Amino acid sequence: MPVLEEYHNALRLGQKEIKAAAARGEETGLQVLPGDPEELAMRRESLGVVEVPSELIVGTCNKLRRNSFSPGFYPALEADSEFAGKWASLCQAHLNEGIRDPIKAVEYLNRFYVVEGHKRVSVLKYFGAITIPAVVTRLLPRPSDDPEVTAYYEFLNFYQMTGLNFLVFRRPGEYRELMEAMGRPSREAWSAEEIHDFRSFYYMFRDACLRENADQQYISLAFLVYVKLFGYQASQGKLSTQIARELPMIRQEVRNRLENAGVTLMLEDTVKKPLFPFHPIGERLCAAFIHAGSSDTSRWVYEHECGRYLLEDTMNDQLYTLSYENAVTEQAAEAAINDAMAKGADLIFTTDPSLLLPSVKQAVRHPEVKFFNCSLNNSYPSVRTYYPRMYEAKFIKGAIAGTLSRSGWIGYVADYPTFGTIASINAFAQGARMVNANARVLLSWNSLKEGGGIDSLRAKGIVYIDYLDRLAANAGPRSRELHNLAMIHCDWGRFYQSLVRRVLDGSWKKESRGSSAISYWWGLNQKIVDVLCSRRLPAGTRRLAGVLRDAIRAERLDPFYGVLMNQQGHVVYGDDGPLPAQQILSMNWLSTYVEGSIPRPEELTDRARAWMRVQGFEEAGLK
């Protein structure tokens, strides 16, 4: 084909890109380096000659060149222009002997901007070059709280280990996710063989994605999700055709990340018990329950088992259940899930946050089975999560403690700093302060390497302590020296009945929210959570607890209404109304009425850190 005809073809592609960009309201030319290099960069770093992925070359350092090309570097000037003649000559040289001279470019936040060699980039991209050689100067941004800058510095750590620049994540934590999924949590440099194997697998995966017309950002996120769910070692020998068959299984998971769809909180239980069963008579559902511990040793598992028995007893004509205990490892969890599906399970409940990832791995492979995991704020659309809304009950317990404490000092023992836990601490403090102007909550943690918990509070003379909630997964036996004056009760049987009815009456599908994950977060209003008061409490205090319970259920009282201040005295919420549920769930600050702190990850036990990673709290940041 004559080179001028090649130019005409490239020009048509460029004009098509320009029209599409204009229709979307975007720039119709090349991106321009966003600012003066001296102002953008903390310092410069020369990388020498680097093979740059062509899709990462996004723009120019010279704004006068921006309109000579489409956003994808196709030519934009007419075929009779001098520019067209030079482009055609360069095209001929490429066809005859190849373009050998590297371009010059600067790299800023994993985007490459051309200094010299714009037409070389245009010709090479037109002919489908995967990489383009370039003499690169890296502009290192000043460290900031910007998530993209944070993610970039995580990339630099990855680059130092591997020397690879084709895998780009733009949100903090995703490089670490990948390393953990690959079983490479350390920062040791990769061997030449490891780099070769990773590169080969990535480009095999990329080829599969390009068959679906995926862009670079989608490919990177899809690669992360795929490695997490299908395994790196297990997938290295796969062909791109096999990967392409598996990609549709993870599409929703990738879209959730790509669209930042997060999680939709279902705060109300609108499904009521039907007059007539929706499910065909004679066809009973099978619901399997998989626990990480044993009902003999774990109060958490025991309560879920009680809920299972109640579910089966109440809905015996519509379902039967299976139970698996001690799924401690991921392999044990997957074996239990597979056995349950082999026995006909239609629904699978995994009752511990540590079982989330095994649940997702099986859910994407078996969309005909409905999976639930007992956790909070996890953005996996394939698995719906459920958890009791505890902070309202904690508010009532705080008020009870506030009425009893003469000194005003009240203790609070928490297990893990995960989503929902911080809201419970702050709500407890709000309740105590509401009835006692001198109330202060002294916070201690059970999960510190250096110790803590109830012993540290008792050593300080604290008499009233929030401790040993029935929902605590590692509560252990009660000491005879302690008296339980108020206790939170969760009606797991009611919770499971309502979740099952969603499947029976078809509202499961109606509650879907695109690529957003779904999380059921129910509390006092839904009669999932309640506060049980001991007869040791004064009658007036018991009546107060009942009044507060009724007020919360009637929505006349909200623990987080109005101005809220953190420990530093800063207003974190100042509206005349209740704090939105998502902000309550994702709290990462402590109330001004709380003495203590949220521990840093390195201060916690390995088990606690694992829980934090599962819940996503380790990346949330603390205030």
Describe the structure.
- The chain is α/β, with parallel strands linked by helices and 623 residues long.
- It folds into three domains: 1-142, Alpha-Beta Complex (Conserved hypothetical protein from pyrococcus furiosus pfu- 392566-001, ParB domain), CATH 3.90.1530.10; 265-381 and 493-522, 3-Layer(aba) Sandwich (Rossmann fold); 391-468 and 528-619, 3-Layer(aba) Sandwich (Rossmann fold), CATH 3.40.50.2300.
- The protein is built from 22 helices and 21 strands.
- The strands form five sheets. Strands 7-17-12-11-10-8-9 form a seven-stranded parallel beta sheet, with helices on both faces. Strands 1-3-5-4-6-2 form a six-stranded mixed beta sheet.
- Helix 16 (421-435) links the parallel strand 13 and strand 14.
- Helix 8 (216-230) packs across helix 11 and helix 15 (391-404) packs antiparallel against helix 20.
- The longest helix is centred in the N-terminal third of the chain and has 21 residues, at 3-23.
- The termini are far apart.
Q: Can you summarize this structure?
A:
The chain is an alpha/beta fold and 623 residues long. It has three domains: 1-142, Conserved hypothetical protein from pyrococcus furiosus pfu- 392566-001, ParB domain (Alpha-Beta Complex); 265-381 and 493-522, Rossmann fold (3-Layer(aba) Sandwich); 391-468 and 528-619, Rossmann fold (3-Layer(aba) Sandwich), CATH 3.40.50.
